[in-house]
Amino acid sequence: MKKIILKLIKLQLLVLSALFCSCTYVIDENTLNENLDPINNSVEDIIVPKGFNFETTDQIKLKIKSEDISSPSIFSVYITDDNDKKFFIGKGISDANGQLDYYFNYPKYISKLYIERNLNGEISSKEIHFTSNFAYVTFDESSSNRKLNQDTIKGISDADNDGIDDTLDEFNQHPKKVFNNYFPSSQHFSSIAFEDLYPLKGDYDFNDLIINYQFNLITNASNLVTFIEAKIVFKYLIGTEKTSGFGIELPFHSDSIKSASGSFLTTGKIQLNNKGLESDNDLDKPVIIVFDNSYEMGNENGDLIESDTIYININISDHPIAFSDLNKDIPYNAFIFINKDRSHEVHLPGKKPTQKFNKQLLSLGDDVGDFKTQNGHPWAIHIPHQFTPPQEGIDITNAYSVFGEFVSSEGNNDKDWFIDIDDHKIYSNLIINE
């Protein structure tokens, strides 16, 4: 805001000097524009389609079939970008009919998948393009195009007795762990970017707190999730006036959880139960608090404060859950809470608060329900990519040139608005830390 005011003052001085100068003075509009950053757009100007929650991800229902059912097949799934670079998502094992239903959360801008089949050491691969939330791929008996060293396959060993050969088992010393399954991929982090003035509207620069995260759903030999691991790094702009905490409401009953660990708590205001979950929540909506005071952790990195990596581990191995049920809405119901006040929650648009939310906040500001303003604008956005935040006071529409088109099209256009292509990023208005 200060930057905008200064530029308006400069403009007024130029106009006044032109009016009162004894000589004829012509104001060159182009010269004025050269000195002004493109800061005329606003999230407030975007017409948000009814019911749109700024989604940048979706679940694809991928069905993989091996015609050769002489032995189980191990299928590996990769997403593929426009440069045909592959990024590993995860693995699963076929059933008795040679089929694997692999339903997973994916960035909407992705439209290509790369699938590998490992059948008795023979590797087959296929690339598929998809245009809907369903994709099918079949490997016939002659699909093999390369082989592993057979010496590593023959002479089967299974140290943990889970039925998966040690050469294929990614956890060959742990009977309840077999395969890693990542979101957004094994090589990337996603981001959630928050405004912290809730319930009042913010300035839509989304730099008050940014959560970078990577989830790993570890499955057993039956393709059921037994452990959930998350890596979390947060950052915020130096000078941010409010400290924040961060929590995640999980989408399954607390009875499924054996233990949860990794919380970084310093205020003494968060109480945990004997499982490591936050106490006094609905049993069917358990909450893990990742940290409760952003001011107490982190180091300067350019214009930002950035934390060390926080490692969250959730053990559900005694009551494993279907992979498709847990890989459809990551990062689940993630939220921040402001100034050590656990009841002052801020969620992604379309989400519901936890039972500890202070409902009086709904009558004190601009939230008309589901963490959206009357015009559908949010206090948080989810990006399946590591987010580069705008400079302080710079509306996101002036830092990402096609964000407005993405929103007004209900997410159908410019699904990659956050990617560094086609001048999507206006670098002069972003916080760039080398």
Overview of the structural elements:
By secondary structure, this protein is mainly β. It has three domains: 2-34, no CATH class; 43-54 and 189-429, no CATH class; 57-176, Immunoglobulins (Immunoglobulin-like). Helices cover 8% and strands 30% of the residues. Strands 9, 10, 11, 12, 14, 16, 17, 18, 19 and 22 form a ten-stranded antiparallel beta sheet that branches. It has a five-stranded antiparallel beta sheet with strand order 3-2-5-6-8, with no helix packed on it. The chain is globular. It starts with a helix and ends in a 26-residue tail after the last helix. Keywords: Signal.
How would you summarize what this structure contains?
The protein is 8% helix and 30% strand. With 434 residues, the chain is mainly beta.
Considering the chains and any ligands shown, give keywords for the structure.
single chain, 434 residues, mainly beta, Immunoglobulin-like, 3 domains, ten-stranded antiparallel β-sheet, five-stranded antiparallel β-sheet, 4 helices, 22 strands, globular, disordered N terminus
